[in-house]
Design brief:
- It contains 12 helices and no strands.
- It is an all-alpha fold.
- The protein is elongated and about 55 Å long.
- The longest helix has 18 residues, at 82-99.
- It binds iron/sulfur cluster (SF4).
- Iron/sulfur cluster (SF4) binds at residues 147-148, 186-187, 192-194, 197, 199-200, 203, 205-206.
Length: 210
């Protein structure tokens, strides 16, 4: 792993996507947190279709804390794992209302006390809401960083550990939104757009396949 390569990559992605931000639809921080929870194992696009209607009714934690969970299921039943997600939306709304006085917590330690909020989820929330320098390493981020040899790892967990140790805070800040757009629209798992990619000269995948 070469520190200059990492820095150059982060700067270049920032040039490619100067206004990068999450593609999830939300109008306040509570909705952002719920949208992130709902996006597990499904696409942002599918979540947005549901939430453009659902979020007219779910604005604050108190809106759903006392509601029947079956009601939430009816709203979100077109997304995957909607039964579990509805249960967790209800529990999360209740905890934020009762334990945090309807104010969304802003530390990883507090966020992970909420149902279905893991460290990675908390990092995504804080990266989007606070511009905190965290990168959510999922299979896509793991794939891209390995293709470019910015890491040489076997699992997303291993990648997460490597970049936590070796990427600067500035790199994390530049990459947390831009990297998502890069894997989504340029370096897809199948048929990446290598012919228009500025990194093809340094890409391990490209060298192997061309
Ligand atoms: S050259 Fe292709 S595989 Fe390599 S980073 Fe660019 S898009 Fe991805």
């Amino acid at each position: 792993m070469n520190k200059k390569d990492i820095s150059d990559f982060a700067k270049k992605l920032n040039e490619m996507y100067p206004n990068a931000k999450t593609e999830l639809y939300y109008t306040n921080e509570f909705q952002l947190l719920i949208a992130i929870l709902m996006s597990a194992q499904t696409t942002d696009k599918q979540v947005n279709i549901v939430n453009r209607n659902f979020f007219n009714f779910l604005k604050e934690p108190s809106d759903w804390a006392s509601m029947d969970v079956e009601y939430i299921k009816d709203f979100i039943n077109t997304i995957s794992f909607f039964n579990n997600k509805a249960e967790n939306i209800k529990k999360t709304s209740t905890i934020i209302k009762e334990k945090f006085g309807s104010v969304i917590p802003k530390t990883i330690e507090e966020l992970i006390t909420l149902p279905w909020v893991w460290i990675k989820t908390a990092k995504v929330f804080l990266a989007v809401s606070e511009d905190a320098p965290y990168i959510w390493v999922d299979t896509h981020v793991h794939r891209v960083l390995n293709r470019l040899w910015l890491v040489n790892t076997k699992t997303p967990l291993e990648t997460d550990k490597k970049i936590s140790k070796n990427f600067t805070k500035e790199n994390h800040a530049l990459l947390h939104n831009t990297l998502v757009l890069f894997w989504r629209y340029q370096c897809m798992a199948r048929n990446p757009k290598c012919e228009t990619c500025p990194f093809s000269g340094k890409c391990n995948y490209y060298k192997k396949n061309n």
